[in-house]
Each structure stands twice: as structure tokens, then as C-alpha cells.
Task: structure prediction
Amino acid sequence: MRKKRIILLTRTYLPIIGGREIVVYYLAKAYHQLGYDVRVVGQLRFARRRNRPTDARVHSWPSLVSHFPAWIVSERVKETLQFLELRIILLVEIFLFGADIVHSHATYPQGYVVALLKSFLKNKVVALTPHGNDIHTIPEIGHGMGLNPEIAKKIKIALEKTDVITSIAEAVSTSIKRYGIDEEKITYIPNGVDVERFAFNNEKQIDNDEDSIVNIVSVGNFHVRKGHRVLIDAVDKLNQENNRYRLTIVGRKSRELVEYATSKSIACTFTGKIEFTPRDSKNPDELAEIFSKSTVYVSSSINDEAEGMSLAVLEAMAAGLPVVASNISGNRDIVEGFKNGILVNPNDVSALSNGIKEILQSPERFYEMSQNSVKGANSVSWLEVAKKYLTEFEAAANKS
Result:
């Protein structure tokens, strides 16, 4: 019997590190384990071979249009040509290698291009999973593709014409419904986590010594919506009471943020960008090592549209870290559901510092939260998440 063929269509891939790239990596691996023929497809200029999944093919097509200088074609013409180029790529990909399921991991441009080809994709399931700025908008800081009215129209078309829409968090569902999509068409499927990757030191405990060092960690490339300044101010506030708190921020940094942390005179380490390290890699896993030496994980994003479901929070849970997180969608799904930490008002320095102190007040409660983190992570393995997607694909195939 022929294996079912799945295309995971994405605009970026490893070694670029972000939620979308890691989700696609793990889904490809899980689908392969479940017996599917999987291909990651896109114009993936940065998909270097050494970081590709060993269990899925990566088809990286060239982009000729992106190299056209502005003096040859206007941006509007360039965009039109890029749509045409991506349509041709997808049709050629399907003609040469086949497909039963086309799963886009961005509403725009990938989801929109698939929508334009819907009439050519008969007997194929078309699925769409938004991840971040392709569905969320935060007007105050200019975040989100949908702030552009022309792009917003195309996102709406992408959502209307797809067979399966999945949402990784409550806020993502809310953003999807804002485009007029009926709630019944949206299926909630959370992100997963590679539990074994972080399991080597996940028995976290503290003592009653008020002078012992507390290592706080947060993961996220610098962006205003991540609330890094709020986190730095919260740690500074804690150190004014007891100078035992150390902060590590993992991800792409900015000179502005480093200078801000320096002005506060707190012990803050910026790792800069670190490479994603699959569990079967021979290279040291920097993130797992950082988590193993940390005490508490903090997610300080500023509002509901700032996150989907944070992979970093799930990975910190797998490492046994209690979580202090802004009370926003995604974080709520994780922390309330698993009782593994404390939710605090977003963009509130005092609330964040008090939340960190509260987690450290009782060694017994800290240990309970740590173990709840591990249990929660164990319940969302990538294999189980992949099965949920496949159930939706099968249901859509049976309808058509």
C-alpha cells in the first residue's frame, strides 16, 4: 500500500530558530515515524544540510524573483511575480513527487498561494496552521502582517479556502475568528515538546537558604512584544531586596537591550542566537544545558497577541522548571492546565517580581510545580500532537 504523502509548506526552516521552524521539524519527524512520506517544501535559502531532519526530505527551491533589484521591478510587481513563482514551485513539486496533504505553516504568502491553487488540488487535503505575526496583530508596536489591509484580504482568502484550520492557542483562535471564520472550522491542537531532550536533569529542588543563587532563564529573540525590559526591571527589583538573582536571556539580542540591562547593574547573561540541536546530534545541546542549571523559567510577553503557544515554555517544563508567565493566551493554556507555575499581569514589573518570589517561598510547593511541569510536558509529546493533526486530515479527506 502506498504511503500517504504530506507536504509541509513553510517560508523558513532550520537553522533559523523560531516556533514555526521547530514545529515543522518535529512534525516531519513524527509523521515519518508514523509511516508517512513527508517533505518540507519552500524557498528555504537557509536550510543547510547539517541541520535538516534525517527523517524527512527537504525540497528547497530557488527564488529568482527575490534577487531582482528595485530599479528593475517595483515592489508591487515583485510581489505578484513571487506569488506566481511560488505557485509554479508547488505545482511542479506535486507533479514530480505527488501529495495527498498540503499543510501550510503560514497564512501568507504560503496559505494564500495554496488557496489560489485550490481548484487544481482536487482530492488533496489543504490544511493551514498560523503561528504568529501571520495571524496576530499588535497595532501599538506595528506587529503583524494583517495590519496591511491588502495582506489582510489575502489572509482572509487563505483561511476561507482551506479544508483544515488548526490553532495552537486561544489567542490564535480569536485572531482567526476576526477574519470571519466560524469557530466550528477551527481545531485546537497544541504544540508539542521533545521530552527526552530535556529530561536528564529535571528533578528541580530548592532549600530554605535565602542566600542561595536563583538562576532565572527566558528564551526569545529580542522584540518589544517579548517584554524583556519588564523582565530586567523585575530582576533588578528583586536584587534590590536580596542580591541573589541571576538572569539569562537566550536568543537574538540587541545593543539597546544589553545597554539597558547594564544600566541596571544586574548579573544578566545574553547568550545571543544559539543553534537548534536535535536529540540525535553529536553537538552539545546549549539550551538543554542552560535549562539544567536554571531554577525558574519566565515568560514576560506583554499581551495576548504576543505569543501563540510558547515552545520555550514547554521545553522549560520538560526540564522540570516551574514557570512564571504573563497571564496571556498560550501561557494560560499551559500554566493553568498543568498547575506548574504562576500567572501574573502582563507588562507589570511588580507582579512579575512577586510571582518569582512566590514560587521560591516553599521548597515543597516548588518541587510540586517542578514535577507538574514534567508531567505536563509528558502529555504533549510530538508523536501525540502529530496524531491529532492526522485525525483532522483524515476527517477532511472523508468529507471530500
About this structure: Residues 104 and 128 are 5 Å apart (CA to CA). The radius of gyration is 22 Å. The chain has a mean pLDDT of 87. The longest helix spans residues 75-97.
